[in-house]
Amino acid sequence: MITAIAPTLTLDAVTVTTDHMGRVYAVIPDDVARPLAVAARKGIDPEARGYFSQESTAHPADGWVAATVRTIFEALLNSPAVADDDDKWGLGQYRTWGGGTFWGFIVGESGWNADTRWWRDHDHTGDLQVRGNATIAPRSRRHLAGTCTF
Length: 150
Prior knowledge:
Shape: globular
Structural class: alpha+beta
């Protein structure tokens, strides 16, 4: 079970940065990134092809995954990199409706090179790369409200 091994993510532990092309990244501690990366792949057929046809299992609104993604969303929205144009990064709806999709990247600290503003050893840090786009279902989704998918 993920909650048994994963620590609670705090706003101070999220570093919001951009790469050399201006794309937004949420850099989080490795011990949070690893189980979040596993959760992002849960329910996706490893043989599936095509990015847009894949979505992870819906993680419960009151679970560790959704709480972690909400913390990341809050850190992103408090960052100047996103605050000026939250719609561009998919988070405008989160402010109003409690749900949205982050169109950037989430990666563990050891998978990010702050000096070059690029992935560190991308091919060998897959366990720190949270695949897909983190999504929290908005309040209008009734029984799905607050659930998290990737």
